[in-house]
Design goal:
Layout lengths: L10 E12 L8 H7 E4 L1 H7 L8 H12 L3 E14 L4 H18 L4 E5 L12 H13 L5 E5 L7 H6 L2 E4 L8 H16 L5 E6 L14 H11 L6 E7 L13 E6 L3 H16 L10 E2 H13 L6 E4 L15 H9 L4 E7 L1 H10 L4 E6 L11 E11 L2 E3 L10 E3 L3 E6 L2 E6 L9 H4 L10 E4 L5 H5 L8 E5 L35
Parallel strand pairs: 1-3, 1-4, 4-5, 5-6, 10-20, 11-19, 11-20, 12-18, 12-19
Antiparallel strand pairs: 2-3, 7-9, 8-9, 13-14, 14-17, 15-16, 17-18
Helix pairs in contact: 3-7, 4-5, 8-9, 10-11
Length: 515
C-alpha cells in the first residue's frame, strides 16, 4: 500500500529537515554517515513519504500525508537529512546542508509556508545552535509574514533564536517516541490555520534543569505529569503545549527543560499556562537525579533468571552506551560480565561492529572462531574483547520495525548482520550503528525474545514501548556502566552549560519570569 502525493495548485510549502541529536563527546559525523541512514533531496522526499514503509522519520511523513488529505497544496521538497543520534555534525558538511537549504528556498520563492522536520538538539563541530541558524536563514529569505513551523523531538535543546525565527514549535509528547507521525499531522493542521491568517503568540521558559535522559520518561514522574497536564489546557485559545526535557550530552548554553505554549493570539494566556507548568516541575526538581542498578547486580539477576525458570525474565538497558544518544553501541562491559558469569538464556544486542560482522559473513554459518570485538574502534569506552564464538545466523540486516514501538513500520537497515553464540550469550552484531528499540532487532534474525531469560539492549528508554509486551516496568534494569551516554552526569567534563544548573549544582535556584 502506498500513499498518493500529487502536486496540485495550492499553497506552496517548503519541506526541510536536519534530524540530528548531537552528543558532543561522540565522534563527529559527515555526509557518509547521513547517507547510511536518510539523506534525501527533491522529489525523492515525496517518493519516500508515499511508501508503506518510509525511511524518513514519522513527523515528515505525518505532515505530508495530513497536508495532502487536508486539501490542495503544492509540496516543495528541498532536503531531508536524518541520522537520529550521533556526534556533532562536521561543520563543513553542515555548511553544505545549510547552503542546499538556502539555495532551495531562494529558488522556490514565492513560498506560502515552510515546514522543518527537525530534531532540535544538533550541534556542529564549531557552533552550538545550527537549528536556530537554519530557522533564521529561512526567516530572512521569506520575510516576517510567511509561516514557519517546526516539529521537535522532546529531547531538543531550545534556543531563543529557534523560538524567535519560527511561528510555532511542536514537540513530541511521548518518550519512548510513539507520536511522531501525529505531531507531523498536528503541524499540518497548524499550518492550515496560519495560512488562513492566524497570528499565534508563544511563551517560552527554560529551567536551569538538565534532566538525565533516564528521568525523562513520560509514563511516570513529574515530567510526564507536566506533559499530561499541559494537554488539559488545549482549547479554542491554546493551540499547543510542548515541554522538552532536552538532550543533556549536547552540552550547550541552551540545555535545560523548556516550556513552549502557543495560543491563537493571546499572549497573556500563553504566559500564564507556561509559567504554571514550569513552576509545577521546579517544585519537584529533586526527582531528576538518576537511580541506576549496579552492573554486578544486573548480571546477578540475569544469572538467577537463567538458573531458575520460575523467575520472570528481565531486560537490562545498557543506558550508558545508547546509540540513540550518540553512544557507539559497542561497549563490552556487560557482554564480558554476562559471559564470565555463565548467564544462561541471555541475548544481547545490537553490538555495532562492522569488522566483526564481516568476518562472520566471510566464515559462514556454523563456523567457530576467535571473535575480537572493537578491533577498529578508538573510543576510550569501546574496549577490545576476545572470545570464541560460533556463527548462528547471517543477514543483510534489513527488516521492518515492530508495532508498537518508536520504529513501528519503518524500513530499517543495520547492514550486514551476524548472530554469534559467545559462551552462554547470544549476540546480534550489526554494521550500521542503531539503538536496539524493538523485538525485531532480535526476532528478525532468528533470536527469540519470548524464549530469552534475560535481554540486554543498547538503549536508554525507547526500547520500553516495543518490549513492553514482554517486560513490564518492574522487570527493567537500567545498568550503571561506563559509556558516552552515562546518566551519571559527574562523569563528564561539561563546558557548554549555563551554570548553575541542577543536578550538577545542587543549590541551583530559579525565579519565575515576571511578565
Amino acid at each position: 500500500m502506498t500513499t498518493t502525493i500529487e502536486k496540485v495548485p495550492g499553497k506552496r510549502i517548503a519541506l526541510l529537515a536536519l534530524h540530528l541529536e548531537s552528543n558532543r563527546f561522540a565522534p563527529p559525523v559527515s555526509r557518509r554517515d547521513f547517507a547510511e541512514k536518510v539523506l534525501l533531496s527533491g522529489e525523492d522526499i515525496l517518493t519516500d513519504a508515499a511508501k508503506t514503509h518510509s525511511r524518513m522519520g514519522g513527523t515528515m511523513t505525518g505532515f505530508i500525508h495530513a497536508m495532502t488529505g487536508g486539501g490542495p497544496w503544492t509540496p516543495v521538497p528541498i532536503v531531508v537529512a536524518d541520522i537520529g543520534a550521533a556526534g556533532p555534525i562536521a561543520h563543513d558538511f553542515y555548511l553544505e546542508l545549510y547552503d542546499e537549504m538556502r539555495r532551495g528556498l531562494e529558488a522556490a520563492m514565492p513560498l506560502d509556508g515552510i515546514y522543518f522536520g527537525q530534531h532540535g538538539a544538533a550541534v556542529t563541530t564549531e557552533i552550538p545552535d545550527p537549528d536556530g541558524a537554519m530557522f533564521a536563514m529561512a526567516r530572512e529569505i521569506v520575510g516576517p509574514d510567511v509561516p514557519i513551523i517546526s516539529t521537535l523531538d522532546l529531547h531538543g535543546n531550545v534556543s531563543d533564536q529557534m523560538v524567535a525565527a519560527t511561528d510555532m514549535l511542536i514537540a513530541y509528547r511521548t518518550n519512548p517516541h510513539v507520536d511522531q507521525y501525529e505531531r507531523g499531522q498536528e503541524a499540518a493542521s497548524a499550518m492550515r490555520e496560519l495560512l488562513a491568517g492566524l497570528k499565534p503568540e508563544t511563551a517560552f521558559i527554560r529551567l536551569p534543569l538538565v534532566a538525565p535522559q533516564v528521568r525523562q520518561l513520560t509514563a511516570v514522574g513529574p515530567y510526564g505529569a507536566a506533559i499530561d497536564k499541559g494537554q488539559t489546557f488545549i482549547d479554542e485559545t491554546v493551540m499547543n503545549v510542548s515541554i522538552l526535557g532536552g538532550f543533556t550530552y549536547g552540552d550547550t548554553p541552551y540545555n535545560g527543560m523548556s516550556f513552549l505554549v502557543t495560543t491563537r493570539g493571546d499572549r497573556t494566556r500563553a504566559q500564564s499556562v507556561c509559567r504554571e507548568l514550569a513552576e509545577d516541575v521546579w517544585k519537584q526538581h529533586e526527582y531528576f537525579v538518576p537511580d541506576l542498578t549496579p552492573l554486578d547486580e544486573c548480571v546477578a539477576r540475569a544469572v538467577a533468571c537463567g538458573n531458575d525458570l520460575s523467575l520472570p525474565p528481565v531486560i537490562i538497558a545498557d543506558v550508558a552506551d545508547n546509540p540513540g544518544g550518540g553512544g557507539r553501541g559497542n561497549t563490552t562491559y556487560l557482554l564480558k560480565a554476562l559471559v564470565a558469569a555463565g548467564a544462561k538464556g541471555a541475548i544481547l544486542g545490537v553490538m555495532n561492529d562492522a569488522a566483526l560482522a564481516k568476518e562472520a559473513h566471510d566464515k559462514g554459518v556454523g563456523a567457530t572462531f576467535d571473535a575480537l570485538f572493537n578491533r577498529a574502534e578508538s573510543d576510550k569506552y569501546s574496549n577490545n574483547y576476545s572470545h570464541e564464538a560460533t556463527v548462528l545466523n547471517l543477514s543483510d540486516g534489513r527488516f521492518i520495525g515492530a508495532d508498537p514501538g518508536t520504529f513501528a513500520n519503518l524500513q530499517l537497515d543495520l547492514g550486514p548482520t551476524a548472530v554469534l553464540q559467545v559462551g552462554t550469550v547470544t549476540v546480534v552484531v550489526v554494521s550500521i550503528r542503531e539503538q536496539c528499540i524493538d523485538p525485531n532487532f532480535f526476532d528478525s534474525f532468528g533470536v527469540s525474545v519470548a524464549q530469552a531469560r534475560s535481554v540486554t539492549v543498547k538503549s536508554r528508554g525507547h526500547f520500553r514501548a516495543g518490549f513492553l509486551p514482554y517486560f513490564p516496568p518492574e522487570r527493567v534494569l537500567e545498568c550503571d556502566a561506563p559509556g558516552l551516554t552515562s546518566p551519571n552526569l559527574v562523569n563528564f567534563d561539561w563546558t557548554g552549560f549555563t551554570r548553575p544548573v541542577f543536578p550538577l549544582d545542587p543549590d541551583t535556584k530559579w525565579t519565575p519570569p515576571d511578565w
